[in-house]
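Notebook B, p. 112. Complex prediction, attempt 2.
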Amino acid sequence: NAGVTQTPKFQVLKTGQSMTLQCAQDMNHEYMSWYRQDPGMGLRLIHYSVGAGITDQGEVPNGYNVSRSTTEDFPLRLLSAAPSQTSVYFCASSYTDLDEQYFGPGTRLTVT
Amino acid sequence: AQTVTQSQPEMSVQEAETVTLSCTYDTSESDYYLFWYKQPPSRQMILVIRQEAYKQQNATENRFSVNFQKAAKSFSLKISDSQLGDAAMYFCAYRAPWDMLTFGGGTRLMVKP
């Protein structure tokens, strides 16, 4: 049982480049979310989805796009990377928004 | 937006001793959930314990227990018989129905052998 997987584990981008962080879960969870974690801070919600075809913004959505075409996958797109987006990104999933969230291993992104 | 505050950036405990990590939160809701997550150096976020606000009984999971004071909006985590493997960042988190999961800033716990 793979749980929540994220790729890549590490990524370095130049300012202005775009990329997609991949997230997949095999637990048939409806609720999926993306967080970023900055030094000395807890996780902050970027975007979330309550099911396929439905997404919404979290606390810090600017500069990021998401889509949810399937239950399993929830990619996060950086359209034009900025140094302020240097962070560790976590994907999480759960059956509902109040159930235990299962986290992926994280992606460390550096934007130079 | 709700806020979650962890006032202790760092704590240390001797192996086999007991330590308590503090967490306070701000909400006007009566129905909500509170969580403690552990993040070891591997970066993996691991749920330690969960408390439903409507339950008066404090949650326990083996060596981990909470002191939930709803009126004071306080949710502390007690770790008994501390082990070297308990060394990690600990995050308190809050969620109300139809609201986002909000994390505190974290407490780094060091365990001394």
